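User: Structure please.
Assistant: Input sequence and predicted structure:
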Amino acid sequence: MVTKPVDKQFLGITVALIVAGFFIFISASMGLHARGNIAFGAVVFKQIALGLVLGTCALLLASRTHYRFWKHYAPHIFGICILLMLLVFIPGMGISHGGAQRWVSILGFSFQPAEFLKVGFVMFLASWLSRSRGKIHNFSHGLMPVLVMLAIAGTLLILQPDAGTFLIIAATATAMYIAAGASIKDILILVLMGMIAFSLLVAVKPYILDRLKTFVHPSEDSLGSGYQIQQSLIAIGSGELFGRGFGQSVQKFNLLPEPIGDSIFAVAAEEFGFVGSISILALFLFFALRGLHIASKMTDVFGGLLVVGVVIMIVSQSFVNIASMLGVFPLTGMPLLFISQGGTALLVTLGAVGIVLNASRYQRQ
C-alpha cells in the first residue's frame, strides 16, 4: 500500500529537464525548418505527441504501478524486447537509415526497439541479481548470467549496428553488478572481458576504428569524418559565457550535422553559453545524485538495483553525448535524453523515470 508521495526533489529535477529540453528542441528545430526539410512538422509532432504526451502518460502509469510488479514479469519483458529487436532484420518491417538497421515500422508507426531493450535489460538484471543475493560470488549465479545477458543484448545491437547503446547497457550492467555486491575479482574479470570484446569489435567493425581515429585526430579530415566534431566545437565556443540567445544559433542552419539529434547540446551551448551548458550538466548531476539517494534508501535489493540501473542508464547516455560534443569522447550518435529528437527515447525515458518515482514512495525515512 502506498503510504508516501513520490520524491518531490527527483520529480522537480525531471520536470526541469523536460521543460528545458522542450525549449532547446524547439529552437534547434528551427534550423531544420530553415533547411527546407519537409519533415519539420512531422518531427515536431512526433516529439510532442509520442515523446511528451505519451511519455507523460507512461510516467504517470509507471509511478502508480508498484515497482515489484516489474520483478515478476522481468523475464517476459526482456523476452519481448529481444523479439522486438529481431523485427529490425525482417524485410518490410526494419528501417535502414545512415547505414544502420535500428528502426521498426508497424502500420505506419516507427520506433527504435533498442530503447525498450535498455529498460527491459535493467529489469531482468535487477531481478536476477536480487534473487541471487548471497550467491552472487558464485560464478554460475553472478558473473556468468551477467555475461550471458550482455552477450545476447550485445549481439543484437552490434548486428544493427548500434555500438553506442551497447556501451550504455554495458556501463549500466557494471554499475548494477557492483551495487549488488560483486567481488573485486569478478569486477576486474568483467572489465577485462569488456576490453577484449571492444578490441574484437574494433577489428571486425571498421566504423568503430574510424571514430576512434577521428577522436584522436579530429582535424585530419575536417570536411569528412571530423566535420561534425569541428562544427560542434565552433558552436560551443561561439556561445562564450552567456550565449547568443534563444533561437539565435548560427550553426544549426546548414552547418552543424544533426542539430536536433546527437548535436543538440552544441546548439544549446551556442545559444545559452557556458552558463547554460553548466546548468544542463548540473541538472543531470542532480538527477543522478537524487536517484542514487533513493536507491540507497530502498527497503529491498530489487528496488535498489532497479533504481540504480535506471538512473545510471539515463545519466551515462546523457554524459556520453555531451562528452562527444565536447571532443573528450568518441562520437557515438547517442541522443541527449530529455532534449534530442527521438519520440521513442523520450517515451521510454519518462516511463523509466516513473518507475523510480514509484520506488521513491517506499524508501526508508
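Strands lie at 94-97, 100-106, 109-111.
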